[in-house]
Amino acid sequence: MEDSISLTIDGTEVNVERGTTILKAAEAAGIEIPVLCYFAHTTANGLCRLCVVETEGVRGMQAACVAEASEGSVVHTDSPGVQSARKTILEMLASTVDLSEAPELHKLMQRYDAQPKRFEGGKRRQPEMIDDNPMYIRDYAKCVMCWRCVQVCAADAQYTYAIDFSGRGFNSSIGTFFDKPIPQTTCVFCGQCVGVCPTGALKGKREFLFEQGVAPEDIFQVTRRNGKNQRSLKGPHLDRGG
User: 86 with 35, same domain?
Assistant: First the structure.
């Protein structure tokens, strides 16, 4: 068929529709390629590079979530070079960002024997936790800039455009326009950004307060959306030390 192609992935011949990404072609062959920024219901952008693969005859590594499979290509998803690239990415993430609530990344770190201490002494991302609304908290010290929250807030799902990238380089972050508090943005508190966050950088406020040992009746008062009761609960539970 003109609309199908054949390629080899890790020694397995795969037939897929033309235009299929290497990631999807690997899935069709039962081969798992690790991902972080990729999410099945958002547009793939190849940001994190955790899904890189090597294709014979192609210079450099390709992000499998965006690179299209090609006729006759031979792809290696777990070569020594690929393993080294993924290990370094994980080490740099763990040395910079708080991954304490990212169990899937911890599994990958074990798989690739990632050693964050290789980059020990470097600057860490430690912005203050943002508690400016009754529905969820924003702890960007845990943010890996995967862009999932931005995408579901925008054209991939909600069309609200309340959040976007802010800053440059190491100081890049997810933020609101003009750094306004969430209630002053176009946010409709749908919760989709919280649902797609892989690291706990965004978390429902009731869940967060419950984890901190706050009494249920106090949690109810904090999270009620009703004028004078809409407030932040200040106290030691907001400190990073617990």
Answer: no
The number of helix segments (H) and strand segments (E) in the chain equals 7, 9
Give the structural domain span for 22: 4-78
Nearest to 13 by CA among 64, 82, 73: 73
Give the chain's radius of gyration (CA, Å). Answer: 21
Let me know whether 27 and 110 are in one domain.
no
Q: Which amino acid is at 24?
A: K
Looking at residues 69-92, what average pLDDT do you find?
Answer: 96
Q: In what order do the strands lie in the sheet with 74-76?
A: 12-17, 4-9, 74-76, 52-55, 62-63
Total number of domains constituting the chain: 3
pLDDT tens per residue, range 121-164 = 888 989 999 999 989 999 999 999 999 999 999 999 999 999 99
Locate tokens 């307060």: which residue?
209
Which secondary-structure segment (H or E) carries 106? helix 103-111
d(CA 173, CA 125): 10
Residue 190's contacts (CB-CB under 8 Å, 6 or more residues apart) are 158, 160
- Whether this prediction's pTM lies above 0.70 is answered by yes
Query: Each residue of 7-38: pLDDT tens digit?
Result: 999 999 999 999 999 999 999 999 999 999 99
